[in-house]
Amino acid sequence: MASEVFAPAKINLTLHVTGRREDGYHLLDSLVSFAPVGDLLTISEGDGLSLRVDGPEAEGVPEDGNNLVMKAAALLVSDADLHLHKALPAASGIGGGSADAAAALRGVSARGGGDASAEGLLAAHGEEILALGADVPMCLYARPLRAEGIGEALTPLALPPVAAVLVNPRLQVSTPAVFRALERRDNTPMPETLPDMRDTADLIAVLSEMRNDLQAPACAVQPAILDVLARIGAQPGCKLARMSGSGATCFGLFLSETEAAAAAEAIAAAEPGWWVASAVLGDCSALAAPRGQ
Ligand code: C5P
């Protein structure tokens, strides 16, 4: 029997770059949430490991051992037939490949009767999972959290849900190039204790005081991101427009789902070549749990 695992998009609501390790990796302090928009991985029995990729965002996604899904599955099993339906644009700052790798880990582990929880997988294979990509551990949680270190020190949080529009101008941005363009690598972290956030308005007020330190360098590498941010910020009801991760996907936050959906519709109509979605960001862990083993 096949199992299905949903891989929700990861959104960095904030991302402060607070230092740099000797190996060149940057130390981060980031508030992360997840969107019920994502890829779908189907796992069935196979002889050896194989992967097939289809879906609207499949172009250019490798189907061999270079795909993070294959690398992730290979950590746990040597036989599985994997089918990835790609709905998230690749190399876009919303975790696509990392979310897929996390889905593979959850799904393969659950099929083998193992512990598919983020805590269990990280306790057993933390180093190898982090080596797949710095965002893979957070994608295992698929729920709001604070990420520190290079993405391995994770603290789940209860953040209020927030309606958002997600926009990618269909330009891939190289994460190492953005980190190279970063001028200050010792920016202030977020406050150690976050203020109380009772509702969406509180959350947006707190986020407004914070930043994504990769936004300016990403705009220097790819100036089209400035247009995306301006387009989002001009939508009625948009309270905050910011880039996620190392870009180029940006998000706008709204007080209501209706406003976010209207913004998505308006942007998609004006820019038919862009990838646009609206979603409520929050806890997607139930949605991301493997189904049908
Ligand atoms: O781990 P991941 O494959 O996502 O990282 C891609 C590249 O981004 C790394 O090789 C590194 O250049 C940069 N990076 C970084 N600091 C991080 C995460 C990524 O410098 N915390």
TrEMBL record:
E.C. numbers: 2.7.1.148
Domain GHMP kinase N-terminal: 67-142
Hydrolase found in the keyword field: no
Keywords from the named record: ATP-binding, Isoprene biosynthesis, Kinase, Nucleotide-binding, Transferase
The family this protein is said to belong to: Belongs to the GHMP kinase family. IspE subfamily.
Domain of life: Bacteria
Purpose: Catalyzes the phosphorylation of the position 2 hydroxy group of 4-diphosphocytidyl-2C-methyl-D-erythritol.
Reaction catalysed by this enzyme: 4-CDP-2-C-methyl-D-erythritol + ATP = 4-CDP-2-C-methyl-D-erythritol 2-phosphate + ADP + H(+)
InterPro entries according to UniProt: GHMP_kinase_C_dom, GHMP_kinase_C_sf, GHMP_kinase_N_dom, IspE, Ribosomal_Su5_D2-typ_SF, Ribsml_uS5_D2-typ_fold_subgr
UniProt pathway annotation: Isoprenoid biosynthesis; isopentenyl diphosphate biosynthesis via DXP pathway; isopentenyl diphosphate from 1-deoxy-D-xylulose 5-phosphate: step 3/6
Protein name from the UniProt record: 4-diphosphocytidyl-2-C-methyl-D-erythritol kinase
Residue ranges constituting the GHMP kinase C-terminal domain according to the UniProt record: 199-269
Enzyme class, broadest EC rank: transferase
Residues holding ATP: 89-99
Residues annotated as the enzyme's active site: 10, 135
Gene Ontology biological process terms in this record: isopentenyl diphosphate biosynthetic process, methylerythritol 4-phosphate pathway; terpenoid biosynthetic process
Keyword Kinase: yes
GO molecular function: 4-(cytidine 5'-diphospho)-2-C-methyl-D-erythritol kinase activity; ATP binding
